[in-house]
Design a protein that fits this description.
It is a single chain. This protein is α+β, with helices and mostly antiparallel strands and 158 residues long. It has one domain: Molybdopterin cofactor biosynthesis C (MoaC) domain (Alpha-Beta Plaits, 2-Layer Sandwich), CATH 3.30.70.640. Helix content is 28%, strand content 29%. The protein has four helices and five strands, in the order E-H-H-H-E-E-H-E-E. The protein has helices spanning 36-43, 52-65, 67-70, 109-127, and strands spanning 22-33, 81-89, 93-104, 135-145, 152-153. Strands 2-3-1-4-5 form a five-stranded antiparallel beta sheet, covered by helices on one side. The protein is elongated, with a radius of gyration of 17 Å. It starts with 21 loop residues before the first strand and ends in a 5-residue tail after the last strand. Keywords: Lyase, Molybdenum cofactor biosynthesis. Belongs to the MoaC family. Pfam families: MoaC (PF01967). GO terms for molecular function: cyclic pyranopterin monophosphate synthase activity. It catalyses: (8S)-3',8-cyclo-7,8-dihydroguanosine 5'-triphosphate = cyclic pyranopterin phosphate + diphosphate.
Length: 158
């Protein structure tokens, strides 16, 4: 059932007023593929704009907090934790994992996906002058805990 549609098929924000407050957590990932030379530049701190991972991490955290401003039917949430981890994967990619947590009435999957996506876009933005052929791949939800639908976890690599 598509919960963002009313009985007439019109888009609406889901009413969570009567939902129980529970602990909720979501983990999402993204991958940025690039030239090996680009990854080396990032790792060696040779980027003229500064620390690519630090900027991407901050961008991901900020994006999670602003998800409701980007995705029209998302609720504004009081996140209690956002973690964005970036890992260089030799020879040619960066793996991003974003985790969002709260105690609330609705899930944080969109916030985790947004954090991972915007961190990846930030890497692209910072490095596009040296590598326009980068690609952002495998943006997906890895795990979700809490709420009525329970626990979801990717069982295998796609």
């Amino acid at each position: 059932m598509l919960t963002h549609l009313d009985s007439q098929g019109r888009a609406n924000m889901v009413d969570v007023t009567d939902k129980q407050v529970t602990f909720r957590e979501a983990v999402a990932e993204a991958q940025v593929r690039m030239l090996p030379e680009t990854l080396q530049m990032i790792q060696q701190g040779g980027h003229p704009k500064g620390d690519v991972f630090a900027v991407a991490r901050i961008a991901g955290i900020q994006a999670a907090k602003k998800t409701h401003e980007l995705i029209p039917l998302c609720h504004p949430l009081l996140l209690t934790g956002v973690k964005v981890e970036l890992t260089a994967c030799e020879p040619d990619s960066v793996h991003i994992q974003a985790t969002c947590k709260l105690s609330g009435q609705t899930g944080v999957e969109m916030e985790a996906l947004t954090a991972a996506s915007v961190a990846a876009l930030t890497i692209y933005d910072m490095c596009k002058a040296v590598d326009r052929g980068m690609s952002i791949e495998a943006v997906r939800l890895l795990e979700k805990k809490g709420g009525k639908s329970g626990h979801f976890k990717v069982e295998h690599d796609a």
